[in-house]
Design goal:
This protein is mostly helical. The protein has a domain of about 55 residues. The protein contains 3 helices and no strands.
Protein backbone atom coordinates (compact mmCIF):
# COMPACT_ATOMS: atom_id res chain seq x y z
CA UNK A 1 0.00 0.00 0.00
CA UNK A 2 1.61 3.21 -1.21
CA UNK A 3 1.17 6.36 0.76
CA UNK A 4 0.21 9.11 -1.59
CA UNK A 5 1.25 12.61 -0.74
CA UNK A 6 -1.69 14.96 -0.78
CA UNK A 7 -1.03 18.11 -2.77
CA UNK A 8 -2.45 21.37 -1.56
CA UNK A 9 -3.79 23.89 -4.04
CA UNK A 10 -0.96 26.29 -3.17
CA UNK A 11 2.62 25.72 -2.16
CA UNK A 12 3.73 27.47 1.05
CA UNK A 13 5.73 29.91 -1.10
CA UNK A 14 2.50 30.89 -2.83
CA UNK A 15 0.92 31.66 0.52
CA UNK A 16 3.91 33.80 1.50
CA UNK A 17 3.66 35.78 -1.74
CA UNK A 18 -0.08 36.11 -1.26
CA UNK A 19 0.38 37.56 2.23
CA UNK A 20 3.11 39.92 1.00
CA UNK A 21 0.80 41.17 -1.76
CA UNK A 22 -2.01 41.63 0.74
CA UNK A 23 0.27 43.58 3.09
CA UNK A 24 1.42 45.87 0.25
CA UNK A 25 -2.21 46.38 -0.74
CA UNK A 26 -3.26 47.27 2.81
CA UNK A 27 -0.29 49.64 3.13
CA UNK A 28 -1.39 51.42 -0.05
CA UNK A 29 -4.94 51.84 1.22
CA UNK A 30 -3.71 53.08 4.61
CA UNK A 31 -1.52 55.70 2.92
CA UNK A 32 -4.51 56.90 0.93
CA UNK A 33 -6.87 57.53 3.86
CA UNK A 34 -7.05 60.64 5.98
CA UNK A 35 -6.96 64.31 5.16
CA UNK A 36 -10.31 65.09 6.67
CA UNK A 37 -11.01 67.97 8.98
CA UNK A 38 -13.62 68.65 11.63
CA UNK A 39 -14.10 72.23 10.46
CA UNK A 40 -16.04 72.34 7.15
CA UNK A 41 -14.72 75.87 6.45
CA UNK A 42 -11.09 74.76 6.48
CA UNK A 43 -9.51 73.32 3.32
CA UNK A 44 -5.92 72.08 3.26
CA UNK A 45 -5.04 71.33 -0.36
CA UNK A 46 -1.44 70.35 0.43
CA UNK A 47 -2.60 67.56 2.70
CA UNK A 48 -5.39 66.39 0.44
CA UNK A 49 -3.40 66.40 -2.81
CA UNK A 50 -0.06 65.22 -1.43
CA UNK A 51 2.29 63.08 -3.52
CA UNK A 52 1.81 60.24 -1.07
CA UNK A 53 -1.92 60.08 -1.77
CA UNK A 54 -1.89 60.83 -5.47
CA UNK A 55 1.06 58.73 -6.69
CA UNK A 56 2.63 56.44 -4.08
CA UNK A 57 -0.52 54.91 -2.59
CA UNK A 58 -2.16 53.94 -5.93
CA UNK A 59 1.16 52.52 -7.14
CA UNK A 60 1.38 50.33 -4.02
CA UNK A 61 -2.21 49.17 -4.48
CA UNK A 62 -1.60 48.14 -8.09
CA UNK A 63 1.72 46.50 -7.14
CA UNK A 64 -0.05 44.56 -4.40
CA UNK A 65 -2.63 43.26 -6.85
CA UNK A 66 0.13 42.23 -9.28
CA UNK A 67 1.90 40.29 -6.52
CA UNK A 68 -1.38 38.63 -5.53
CA UNK A 69 -2.09 37.59 -9.14
CA UNK A 70 1.46 36.26 -9.47
CA UNK A 71 1.05 34.27 -6.23
CA UNK A 72 -2.14 32.70 -7.54
CA UNK A 73 -0.78 31.86 -11.00
CA UNK A 74 2.69 30.64 -9.94
CA UNK A 75 3.27 26.92 -10.19
CA UNK A 76 5.57 25.39 -7.60
CA UNK A 77 8.73 23.73 -8.81
CA UNK A 78 8.18 19.99 -8.83
CA UNK A 79 10.84 18.02 -7.04
CA UNK A 80 10.44 14.46 -8.24
CA UNK A 81 12.65 11.92 -6.52
Amino acid sequence: MDKEKKQLAFHPDNYKLLLIGLAVNILGFLLMIGGGTDDPNKFNADELFSDMRITVAPFLIVAGYVVIMYAIMRKPKSSEK
